[in-house]
Amino acid sequence: MNSVSDKRQEIRALLADVSALVSPPEIVIRLRQAIDAQDSTSESLAAIVMQDPNLSARILHIANSAMYGLNHRVETVSRAISIIGQRALYHLALAVTASQTFSKLPSELVNVAVFWRHSVFTALIARNLAQRCHVLHPERLFVAGLLHDLGSLVLYQRYPDILRESLLTARGNEDVVAQQERELIGFDHAEVGGALLELWGLPESLQQAVAFHHRPGAAANTIEVAIVHMADTLANRTDQGSASEFGAYASLPHPGTWKTLGLDESITDDIWKDVNLQFMETLHVILPQARN
To answer: Where does the HDOD domain start and stop, copy by copy (predicted)?
Structure first.
């Protein structure tokens, strides 16, 4: 059994091999620097965003989408930023650019359409749960939900022969997939995903939420871990949001997760209803090529 330090070194070496494909884009780095400087304005941030026409269009589309439910149209990037907030801008820009970046990472083992449908569905549930739990900056949980399975793309590209049979056997059941990854290569896609978020400079709380989304009991009892774990669980219970090509399956949350969230399981149908209203539009905004 590998030690924790050995495992971390192996994961870092794995990411170093694909660093050219998974490094954060310059525009995300500049946005974070500008926001951290604490003297930025909506106009100064808009000037950065507008250097990428595609990102500008996506941010405007998001601000006008069902995700925000505004009753008037937002016409400028600076106005969109003033409405959704600087931190939300950063998190949404990160979501858009990360999805584009990691879509360049090919894998013969991944059904790309199913992968991104699951990712977006999980992201929307995570944001919904964060809002219900009154978590500060709920868009950061949208990002964690969107990126929670990115480690899979890295693993399946690097170890296709080792993982192929286990993926076929698991039939898309993510808990089984993660367990078999740990048995075959010593770590799972969630741990690789947490390391990816570290590489992209996301907060440690989100790194942990992604790294332990299949094993929340092994992590500190944080609201972020519980949210991403529950979002992933609830997404897998739906045909639209399941990570399995075979549709919904009986994914169960870790005992005590609802209690950690301070919520009751009876709200599940309401969450699915909210997310279904936003799902297709958000999917096509975040990643237009992820269509049926």
So the answer is: 21-216
Q: Which two tokens stand for residue 93?
A: 């820009």
Of 104, 133, 160, the residue that ends a domain is 104
Whether residue 49 sits in one domain with residue 143: no
Helix (H) or strand (E) holding 90: helix 86-102
Cβ within 8 Å of residue 249, ≥6 positions away = 172, 173, 236, 237, 242
277 & 134 share domain: yes
Domain that holds residue 271: 106-292
Same domain, 83 and 118: no
Q: Is the pLDDT of residue 3 over 70?
A: no
pLDDT digit string (tens) for 229-248?
Answer: 999 999 999 999 999 999 99
* Average pLDDT value for the chain: 90
Indicate whether 30 and 165 sit together in one domain.
Answer: no
Kindly tell me the burial class for residue 246, based on how many C-beta atoms sit within 10 Å of its own C-beta (0-12, 13-18, 19 or more).
exposed
CA atoms within 13 A on the CB side of 275: 28
Count the domains in the chain. Answer: 2
Sign of the C-alpha dihedral computed for residues 114, 120, 124 and 127 taken in this order: positive
Same domain, 185 and 60: no
Distance, CA of 134 to chain centre? 19
pTM: 0.90
Q: Are residues 100 and 110 located together in one domain of the fold?
A: no
Q: Are residues 194 and 7 in contact, defined by beta-carbon separation less than 8 angstroms?
A: no
pLDDT of 23 higher than 70: yes
Cβ-proximal residues to 70 (8 Å cutoff; 6+ apart), any chain: 63, 64, 83
User: Is residue 292 scored above 50 in pLDDT?
Assistant: no
